[in-house]
Amino acid sequence: MDGVAAAAALRSVLHRVKQAAERSSRASDRIRVVAVSKTKPVSLLREVYDAGHRSFGENYVQEIIEKAPQLPEDIAGVPNLVMVETVDDEKIANNLDRVIGNIGRKPLKVLVQLVKHVTSSCPNLEFCGLMTIGMPDYSSTPENFKTLAKCRTEVCNALGIPEEQCELSMGMSGDFELAIEMGSTNVRIGSTIFGAREYPKKQ
């Protein structure tokens, strides 16, 4: 996929997000679309950036480190990293917390799967929501998403915070519209914008 096609795909995704938000009586500007470039080259990211998009993601730290020096600071500069979505292990949370404390920057936003540990033991991490992955069986997706949305409600009740303060990262290329209708505030779109992943061919 070339950059022009990726930018056009992004516009299509944003339009679909707007429609899905309207179907659930929500404001589309409250939904974050994270363009996940995975194995794609920097040139493709730049085309999407030049089309006005500013929320990008990578699946692996190494990809961020390699691409960051070639990109504008407001998109992927590691010192300006805004959020880590998949904090699902206490060791990872502790390491992130220590590093953020050592470099003296503002707390790093995290979407987590271990709320209690982050809120009680990691002062340099700012809990701001849940990162979820539903089951791959799309026929069960509605019930799946209802369960995940209910989990957010339960977490917010336990923490004594309003649900508006707790993001719900739910939905990817195959199901993001339904995820938005079910309450997602953050969708992670990879292949729909950038095309299928490309891996080096084995020799």
Automatic annotation (TrEMBL):
Q: Name one GO molecular function term.
A: pyridoxal phosphate binding
As cofactor, the record names: pyridoxal 5'-phosphate
According to the UniProt entry, which residues carry N6-(pyridoxal phosphate)lysine?
38
Keywords carried by this UniProt record: Pyridoxal phosphate
Q: Alanine racemase N-terminal domain spans which residues?
A: 101-197
**SUPFAM superfamilies, from UniProt?**
PLP-binding barrel
Q: Name one Pfam family in it.
A: Ala_racemase_N
InterPro entries reported for this sequence: Ala_racemase_N, PLP-binding_barrel, PyrdxlP_homeostasis
What is one GO cellular-component annotation here?
A: cytosol
The entry's family comment says: Belongs to the pyridoxal phosphate-binding protein YggS/PROSC family.
**The protein's name in its UniProt record:** Alanine racemase, N-terminal
Annotated source species: Cynara cardunculus var. scolymus (Globe artichoke)
